[in-house]
Amino acid sequence: MEVTRKNFKEILPLVSESIEKADFLAIDAEFTGLMNGRDVSIFDSPAEYYIRLYNGASEFLLIQYGVCAFYWNDKKQHYLNEAYNFYLYPRRPGPEKMFLCQSSSLDFLASQGFDFNKLIKEGISYMTETTESRLRDMLAERQKNYSTEKDLISIPEQHKQQIADICKKVRKFLDDKDSDCIEIDRCNNFVRRLLFQELAQFKNEAFVETKVLENQNRILKVTRLKEGDDVTSKDNQKKEKEWEELDDAVGFSKVARMISQSGKLVIGHNMLLDVLHSLNHFFQPLPEDYGSFKEFTHCMFPRLLDTKYMSSLPPFKDKINSSVLQHLFTTLSDEPFALPKADSENGRGYNRTEEKHHEAGYDAYVTGLCFLAMYSHLSRMRGEQTARLKDPTCPVLKPFLNKLFLAKTAHQDSPYMNLVGADPTPSRDHVFHLTFPLEWQRNDINQLFSPFGPVTVQFLDDVSAIVALSRREQARDVARALAKNSKVTLIPFVKFKHKITSSKVQIDNRRQTSPVKQVCVLSVLALLFFVFLCPDTNLLCPFI
Amino acid sequence: MEVTRKNFKEILPLVSESIEKADFLAIDAEFTGLMNGRDVSIFDSPAEYYIRLYNGASEFLLIQYGVCAFYWNDKKQHYLNEAYNFYLYPRRPGPEKMFLCQSSSLDFLASQGFDFNKLIKEGISYMTETTESRLRDMLAERQKNYSTEKDLISIPEQHKQQIADICKKVRKFLDDKDSDCIEIDRCNNFVRRLLFQELAQFKNEAFVETKVLENQNRILKVTRLKEGDDVTSKDNQKKEKEWEELDDAVGFSKVARMISQSGKLVIGHNMLLDVLHSLNHFFQPLPEDYGSFKEFTHCMFPRLLDTKYMSSLPPFKDKINSSVLQHLFTTLSDEPFALPKADSENGRGYNRTEEKHHEAGYDAYVTGLCFLAMYSHLSRMRGEQTARLKDPTCPVLKPFLNKLFLAKTAHQDSPYMNLVGADPTPSRDHVFHLTFPLEWQRNDINQLFSPFGPVTVQFLDDVSAIVALSRREQARDVARALAKNSKVTLIPFVKFKHKITSSKVQIDNRRQTSPVKQVCVLSVLALLFFVFLCPDTNLLCPFI
């Protein structure tokens, strides 16, 4: 079901109902880009991975959010789904947003049929809770001051004639009583502000407001006050409208908070970025510190499950060639797996016959189906019969719960972030930092390591790379053999990382001590002055 | 005439023709945002204004470009127009672009009917000359290496079976001779790369290439080589296609370069941002230095005229209330002005009856009409008869040539940037920097200055502001009177600016001398150590 700001208010109670009755929820989101600056590296630790996303991904916008609720039908003995595909776009009176886009990402979305016109015209607004409470305070404060006197702006010489003419026109309109309102156009922002100030002289006879035309031009509308309506009631209407507008701008954040409050199992496929953007856009800005991020995430979404991580472990790992969502979906349709039935009954969800890949709602639906297929496969292996998921913390799912897949580090032993405990610290004994001559190519490196089996190479620059052995047991031999090679320098990966980290700490320390240093510089200059320039004074003697 | 990548190649010769025959060109552009970070301030000098735009505007994308060519029809004795409205979007093989958007700007464009789907699907690509030559060099280099051997990647354990199966399948396809090609799907990027490498064993029998499906999924296509077609000719076709793709990605930059090469008068309304983005996106990255920017601009566009600047000077200034393009257009339609006839004959331009405000092509057309109306008005004042503009450097236009309007500083005496000479340095004797108590509001400041007439106030923070007197002659009295006021501190603007600039220079110097400082710190520590901790040694004595 497509949700835009045209039907959001009407749909919101249905969404709440769907979440309420669901056994679990699947989500998916689309963004204006994935990564700015240097990408994640294959040997990044989960903490390093987070920092790179924090720096490189958080300025993109979240533009579509899919929520698919799976609820059990006892009569049919299978799941049904209700799905919502929300278009999201930040709006006034929320804060103006500056956001990044990645040209290829938008290009990709457009090719999948994403409707950018609908996005910008009809997207539902959202904001963090932090922003919401700040705006509520500010609005309350502003409304308090409506009745008190405003600061006066002096009218610049070149506008005096225009303002005087308009005031005359309004006076005439009030006296003539031919019509109920007049509109004043062709005024720029500044002139409108001046007019608000100058037309205040008629405040007991007329109400002045800004009117936004369909083409977004702004004009002033002056309405004659009738008997019965007084300035105060007009003012109150205005105030109520402002609160309503703020409420509209909070928009989709309400859905995100419903999901959080439900405490239900939330499924996603390769969901780290979805989680990251959800927190950052609907709850509060991401913390810089990785530990705080894990706590924050677990607090907002206490039960997460990533189908990409699930499919990367036995018994699925060897049976699945590609875990790209569409490929996974196809693979799980065939033996030895089976996709469950989970259609929609009331037109509020998807059915298997539709193919709307990369529409967030549909991808959430497909993710849910993939999850059910894998869950059933595991249950069948244990000889269990029911297809219903009653307890997300059951032994079958426990190994996958609250672990988020780290896509680019997939060929490591630790391709996940553990939200509820220590992250894995796989051995890096078979990984080295290699420095080599400028003229070398990948082949030269392969050649160098050929006696020790195949290697994975990640270039850092023209003369250095990270090299990982496939045959881990060769690590000691490699180190010994290459120690004598004068063309290259080989450092164990752990040692290399340590070196980088400590040099970073040094730089940071140096930065922080800078004011102290300034004092020191002055002292040394003073001292040197005495020592070198005043050789015949005895000024230093008291110290000695 | 709308131009997208679907008809760009076909239209390009027409554009060239239009530019060729034009007496002058009008341009207009649409962007994804206007300003990031702190906005321009009303007392910024032209150089400061440039630096602020350089830092705050250059990351937005240029998404629509209007070019309207006005050419003279001798028979009809008036101008005709040919206009082009180009949708622009950067594409591969040009570099991936990260760009900023301002939510309200996109919202505004959408409300004006801007088609974002068309933009992203059909926008014409572009790139700077710098990027173009780099990409040409890289492609030539890459193609040179096609025939030489590639670096081998070792096949990870988990992919061995899949790769072997596919190789077997291809072998069978080649032996069976049932079809001319087969497609290999459901492979991720890495697997496709491995397959390119492993399928090279069939290079004398089959040609392997990536095929992009409509939904942007990538698959491998293996085509049987027929008698007659050999690997070399297939390779050459591929190379030619790559050059063609690069040429397509240079796209609109060709039009921008045509305009530059024509040396014709180029008209814009409030055109500084248009010029800035044109240079930055189609020619080369903007220089950081303001002087270089002026030279660069004048070199690329030797004859610029800004209708907003033109309308801000006598004899137009007093007759024009608002110089927003639409308002100007309406004002110039009435007495004492007259809009000229300048219709389109061949459907390639606009006519007066259309109303497509904020479509770049239409705005360029309207700008051209406004220019002609003002030009004719000036000519008539001088008693000249012809409506044709024969020489853009004629005395009537000279005062406006190569001066770009600085919108936010409009109420100053110097609201322009002079591209061909020194910028104006208006007196700032009537402007002050004021420091005041935290609890003060705008009214308190108005109150403070009330004996000296009205003031313009620009707040810098909670306790300081820039204040300009309307009655300039009061400057000396103000300074004298407020010198005794213990609540406020008043500094002449020039002195304040000087203070800021010199403190910036100091900070920069401090940064640069940092290595020296480190040596000093060590020295002072060493000295202090001797002085304080070794009182009973005589180590310092040799210095004294």
Q: How would you describe the overall organization of this protein?
A:
- The structure is a homodimer of 544-residue chains.
- With 544 residues, chain A is of the alpha+beta class.
- Chain A is built from 18 helices and 16 strands.
- Chain A has a six-stranded mixed sheet. In chain A, strands 14-15-13-16 form a four-stranded antiparallel sheet.
- The interface between A and B is large, with 85 and 84 residues.
- Strand 5 of chain A pairs antiparallel with strand 5 of chain B, so a sheet runs across the interface.
* CATH architecture tag of the largest domain in chain A: 2-Layer Sandwich
Shape of chain A: globular
The number of strands of chain A is 16
Strand order of the largest sheet of chain A: 1-4-3-2-9-10
Any idea what the CATH superfamily of the largest domain in chain A is called? Ribonuclease H-like superfamily/Ribonuclease H
Poorly predicted sequence stretches spanning 5 or more consecutive residues of chain A: 513-544
Averaged pLDDT of chain A, please? 86
Q: Would you give the CATH topology of the largest domain in chain A?
A: Nucleotidyltransferase, domain 5
Q: Percent of residues of chain A in helical segments?
A: 40-55%
Largest interface between protein chains, with number of residues from each side: A-B, 85 and 84 residues
**Text of the CATH class of the largest domain in chain A:** Alpha Beta
Count of discrete structural domains of chain A? 4
